[in-house]
Amino acid sequence: MARAAAAVATALGALVLVAWLFGIRVLIPISDNLPGMSFNTAISLFLCGLSAAASLSANLKFRRLSGYLVLVPLFLACAQILELVSNNPVGVGRIFSGFVVSPDLLADFKGGMSPNTSVAILAFCLTQVYIAFIARAPDALALTTGGLIASGLGFTSVFGYVFGLEFTYQWRDFAGMALLTAIAIWLLGTVLLLQARHPALRQSSRLHFAVSSALCLVGLLFDLSTPPFIGSNVIYIPVVLSAIWFKDRRIAFSLALTCAVFSFLAYIAKVEYHDDFFQRFIGRSFGIATLFIVAALIYYFKIAVQQGEVGRTAFAALMNNSPDAVVTIDDHGKISGFNPSAETLFGYKEQDLLGQNVNVLMPEPYHSAHDGYLEHYAETGEKRIIGTIREVSGRRNDGSTFPLDISISVLSEGQEKQFVGILRDLSSRKKQEETLRQALNRLGAYAADLERSNQELDEFAYIASHDLKEPLRGLHNHSRFLLEDYDAILDADGKRRLNRLVYLSQRMEKLVNDLLYFSRIGRQELAVQKTDVNVVIRDILATSEQFLEENHAKVVINGPLPTVTVDAVRITEVFRNLIVNGVKYNDKPEKVVEVGFLDAETDDAGKPVRNVFYVRDNGKGIAPEFYQDIFRIFKRLEKAETEGEGTGVGLTFVRKIIARHGGKIWPRSQPGTGTTFFFTLAMEQE
Fold this sequence. Notes:
alpha+beta; five-stranded mixed sheet; about 55% helix; elongated
């Protein structure tokens, strides 16, 4: 529909423009009885029609083009208005058209662009320029204002031609608006209004926009048909007031501006230059100012209403969607709101409780004390539970009571107050607290049992370190005595068995010592301190120099090692065990053990970890199926080659010490190429 209106307006302008160019007088028309369309009006309408068609395109380039097309009409309209205001006709339109139109034809044409035509074209052009170059997108307020002004002036003139009301298109001694001009301007204004009423813009909510448009036209017709008294402005106030029904609160200013233009033009159309012109002009100006005052009042009124609606909507959403029960009461204790969670909690429906005293939800003693609290608050303003969270009891519809938390706040609206209570059922929490209390009691009993077990373990350690080791020493010593005192009597087999007994008693003592040490690792406090790992490794190398030389082994430190807060003695034991194992279980002629530190690595589960130490060797390697076995106490993957071999607890001690430091250890190996032990220490690092 908007495209059709733009096409018709363009065609009308083009038709008269062709008539001017080829001197077809019957189409202009040139007559003393009816106004004709001037050349500058014809070319303006033609260009405005093209601009309207271009603005309907979604393409940004066409929208820009619509702005360029109205620059000439904008110039002609402004020049004509300046001529009218200054009452000094320069004849810009005639000068402009004189380049292309026959001078004889121009001489016969007595009229120019009329005031209402100039203002209508100016309103249309300014709207197109704003949309094309400033807003760069359809703007409802601008389209509405320009569309109302242009379509209102065009329709009023068409209405006058239809019903023979000359005052609607012929104003005083000015040039009148031709019928074809009126139709074209009406269509151009309609194009703007159709764009403004696009569903995406949602201008109107309850009142159809046509009602406000019709009120504008009625106001203009009434104003044109009455004397230029101050009271004529009153007809426009209902137009501005109709803005209260529109969603966009800015529409009030659009209607006020449109009515102000109509009011001013109607006054110019009627007033004669008599003595009291200035006083009446001032009065009319006050009337126009009143329209903008009404628009401002509507604007701020709608802001307040919308804010209130937002607040009510938000509160309603909170009420309906809150997982907690929400109950609102007035200052007399009557229930005014009861959300779905409250219905579930208390077993009542909202309609059953509205208007009832809220103490129906309370058992004694809260039931009797509640009204007294409200009276005390109303008299003194003293808050006892408002703004706090308090544990009380509630009563369900079936009469059962249950514990709940309640938080009360006050909403004030004028002199009226509403109290909002947010309630949460504590039944589950009370059950959980009881379960937790029982668990704590059991935990206390377990702690006592554990304390007894630790004490018994200490007693066992004492027995193992004294009573158990004493007979071992006896077996060892007596075996040695037999070997020394009866060396000449014992045969080779007897000596072999006694030597075996000496070895087994020594090994048994080592096992007991290792077991005792393992138990102490888990129970003794760590003596943590800042420890430079570089110094730790150097100390290990200094004390193991002979061992490394005998085994043709060397230790390489890959980069600087950090300073960490750990138990230095325990961490020294970790590195010593890993380095010794890297040498001991190594079948290469040149044994190499590498110690280093990584900022990031992946653990045995494939998860990224940071700050990782590693000890890598080029030895025999470990098959993946034995990764867990190597950390079991007294578990060895290989039999001892000599009787001086260890007891198989080194890696067990390592994992225990690292775990005490909040870290973990994991191997990564390939049989035949060596093993890397990675480990972390959850201690402060520098």
